[in-house]
Amino acid sequence: MVLLIYSQRHHPFPKILVLNSTNKHQLQQTQQGKKEKQRVLQNRAKIANTIECELQNAEDNVNPSSASSSPTHKLTDSQFHSTSSAFLDAVALESADLHPAPTTLVATEGGDYPLVTGFGDAKYIWFVESSKLWGIAGPIAFNIICNYGINSFTNIFVGHIGDVELSAVAIALSVVANFSFGFMLGMASALETLCGQAFGAGQVDMLGVYLQRSMIILFGACFFLLPLYIYATPILKLLGQETDIAELAGKFTVQVIPQMFSLAINFTTQKFLQAQSKVGALAWIAFVALISHIMILHLFINVFKWGMVGAAAAYDISAWAVAVAQLIYVVGWCKDGWKGLSWLAFKDIWGFVRLSIASAVMLCLEIWYFMTIIVLTGHLEDPIIAVGSLSICMNINGWEGMIFIGINAAISVRVSNELGSGHPRAAKYSVVITVVQSLLIGCISAIIILATKNKFSIIFTDSEPMRKAVADLAYLLGITMVLNSVQPVISGVAVGGGWQGLVAYINLFCYYIVGLPLGFLLGYKTTLGVQGIWIGMICGTFLQTVILVFIVYKTNWNEEVEQASERMKQWGAEALDAT
């Protein structure tokens, strides 16, 4: 399936098409509810019939000597393009029904934007692209912020118990839990690929099978990660952490083992729902979980006086509440994709494992970079203040970063959709508008941090030395916020353009060959301490951002459209072959 696989596999969010006047008129006549769903199913049936007929015609005209080859390989260029043309027309009709574009959108022939000739044109395109961007980024960012808030509020409540406890929980969540989080999320990313393909091809029945298969693999991965939790104390001591911090962190990691197992359900059901663009349910579940988590933390820590044990219990309860709620929604409200337990989940499981591991390695390169920064800080003099102050700043930076993760996903969708639709100018304008808006948000965030540098740490700690250390790091936090407003956006553009392999090599070089060694030298060989480590991290991030900006600046968007077209033809041939 050419367009549907491309859209759903990489971008499980609504696709907005530019419609001509005829399609707009048809769209206005579209009925809602069950009638619309019925028509979509009929369109899919027409697509299948079109492909079947064209394949039959191609087979009738092919040389018998090539009968051993696949049906796709038998097609001549003209036959294949004939098949593709009929197929694309049917897919475009279905996409228009599902994802209508704004009726006021002005487009040139072919659907691309006209050249900007004045302020009025720029203003109009700014408004249209902003609407599209935030329509996708908003729900994603809200979901991520709520989930991240569970970690942050755990740190906030523990910070009022004591500095040692804050540092221990920060190490446990930032190092051990973050390690498993990145690995598990990467493993679950393989599910997004297969569910997207199945949903786009109309094989909705297979979604539940893929979901179960991924759950089996992720539960197995949890047992693989258990030693990291059980032996966290000696591991942290081996890494040079102070004994008091390492022992408390080790106890906390053992207590949050149930939370790790909840990720096997949380991540898989999340990818299952995203493949069908059902992100609204994820946002509501995350919001309710965050509010409940704050209430449970208050009850266990402030009322029952359970200390770190109460924080761990609240963390486990909230994590499993999210996982169970998402699973209930899948089983109860996704009847098309969930058909019950199936033995097919065990079929070709090793191939799924290989795909999952490959996805995990790509994602972990970036996540573990920031985890390593915390570990390096634990070797400095007065590690309690150093780790605690850096963790508070990272918490604040993480809150802002959640917004840009949503923008990252949104710009990836926009660039991919426009390149796939043959609209190079729209892709370019979308990139420019998104970068400008993101940079504006980053600058405003940095100004707020600098204006409140002596006050914002109060919500995390009552310790005066800790608050002073945080204030000293505020300038670096502001710089990081500005950088992080651009870097995720450019990374999203790169992913949308299909440059994942290139970006992985860039991350490896900038983070692990430049950033970490430089941070080590500045932190341990000078008097800068934690500031030196952070400066090294900033240099790595800055270098990565500059390289990616240069790549985007030198990009020929017309060539990217051609490459996207070739990519879709290849995927279409694979889909026809599978049929």
UniProtKB/TrEMBL annotation:
<dbReference type="GO" id="GO:0016020">
    <property type="term" value="C:membrane"/>
</dbReference>
<keyword id="KW-0472">Membrane</keyword>
<feature type="transmembrane region" description="Helical">
    <location>
        <begin position="281"/>
        <end position="301"/>
    </location>
</feature>
<feature type="transmembrane region" description="Helical">
    <location>
        <begin position="502"/>
        <end position="522"/>
    </location>
</feature>
<dbReference type="GO" id="GO:1990961">
    <property type="term" value="P:xenobiotic detoxification by transmembrane export across the plasma membrane"/>
</dbReference>
<feature type="transmembrane region" description="Helical">
    <location>
        <begin position="133"/>
        <end position="150"/>
    </location>
</feature>
<dbReference type="Pfam" id="PF01554">
    <property type="entry name" value="MatE"/>
</dbReference>
<keyword id="KW-0813">Transport</keyword>
<dbReference type="InterPro" id="IPR002528">
    <property type="entry name" value="MATE_fam"/>
</dbReference>
<feature type="transmembrane region" description="Helical">
    <location>
        <begin position="534"/>
        <end position="553"/>
    </location>
</feature>
<feature type="transmembrane region" description="Helical">
    <location>
        <begin position="473"/>
        <end position="496"/>
    </location>
</feature>
<dbReference type="GO" id="GO:0042910">
    <property type="term" value="F:xenobiotic transmembrane transporter activity"/>
</dbReference>
<dbReference type="GO" id="GO:0015297">
    <property type="term" value="F:antiporter activity"/>
</dbReference>
<feature type="transmembrane region" description="Helical">
    <location>
        <begin position="352"/>
        <end position="377"/>
    </location>
</feature>
<dbReference type="InterPro" id="IPR045069">
    <property type="entry name" value="MATE_euk"/>
</dbReference>
<comment type="similarity">
    <text>Belongs to the multi antimicrobial extrusion (MATE) (TC 2.A.66.1) family.</text>
</comment>
<keyword id="KW-0812">Transmembrane</keyword>
<feature type="transmembrane region" description="Helical">
    <location>
        <begin position="313"/>
        <end position="332"/>
    </location>
</feature>
<feature type="transmembrane region" description="Helical">
    <location>
        <begin position="431"/>
        <end position="452"/>
    </location>
</feature>
<protein>
    <recommendedName>
        <fullName>Protein DETOXIFICATION</fullName>
    </recommendedName>
</protein>
<feature type="region of interest" description="Disordered">
    <location>
        <begin position="58"/>
        <end position="77"/>
    </location>
</feature>
<feature type="transmembrane region" description="Helical">
    <location>
        <begin position="170"/>
        <end position="194"/>
    </location>
</feature>
<keyword id="KW-1133">Transmembrane helix</keyword>
<feature type="transmembrane region" description="Helical">
    <location>
        <begin position="384"/>
        <end position="411"/>
    </location>
</feature>
<feature type="transmembrane region" description="Helical">
    <location>
        <begin position="215"/>
        <end position="232"/>
    </location>
</feature>
